[in-house]
UniProtKB/TrEMBL annotation:
Cited SUPFAM superfamilies: Adenine nucleotide alpha hydrolases-like (SSF52402)
Gene3D superfamilies: HUPs
Protein name: Nucleotide-binding universal stress UspA family protein
Pfam families: Usp (PF00582)
CDD domains: USP-like
UspA domain location: 1-134
Domain of life, per lineage: Bacteria
Similarity annotation: Belongs to the universal stress protein A family.
Annotated InterPro entries: Rossmann-like_a/b/a_fold, UspA
């Protein structure tokens, strides 16, 4: 059992988010804390002039709202953290700030960019000062079924 768990929720499916949150709830000790974290990646300054001024504030508020609603729906008490920056660095930094015992993440199917730039999961595993649990289950999508309708992108 873990006292403080950082549960990293990305822009994946709702099914993945549900699974990660349920796993975190099963692993946290009584009186422990689950921190649901989402990182909005930095936008290069050259693109900032093309976006409305309130883009960042709106994106943070929307992510917080969706994550809080998901936690409430699942009946999982959690602290919501949404930050802007580099995902791997912020996950490691927040885990350190909060003296987390575990970072819980989901992997994805690797592509060429992972080999060139390294994945967020790879960077977190290398730099975290605590244990890292990687959920490797790939969500199944059934065309035309209720499962697909419910498996929408969370953020």
């Amino acid at each position: 059992m873990y006292r403080t768990i950082i549960c990293g929720i990305g822009m994946g499916s709702r099914q993945t988010a549900n699974r990660l949150l349920r796993r975190a709830a099963a692993l946290v000790e009584d009186g422990g804390n689950i921190v649901v974290m989402h990182v909005i990646e930095n936008i290069p300054h050259r693109h900032l002039t093309e976006l409305p001024e309130e883009f960042e504030t709106t994106a943070i508020a929307e992510a917080e709202r969706k994550l809080a609603a998901l936690c409430k729906e699942l009946g999982i008490p959690a602290t919501i953290e949404v930050r802007v920056g580099v995902a791997a660095s912020l996950l490691v930094a927040v885990a350190r700030e909060m003296s987390a015992d575990l970072i819980l993440l989901s992997s994805h199917v690797s592509d060429i960019t992972d080999y060139v730039f390294s994945s967020i999961v790879d960077k977190v595993v290398r730099h975290a000062g605590c244990s890292v649990l990687i959920d490797r289950r790939v969500d199944r999508r059934h065309s035309g079924s209720e499962a697909q309708a419910e498996d929408t992108t969370l953020l």
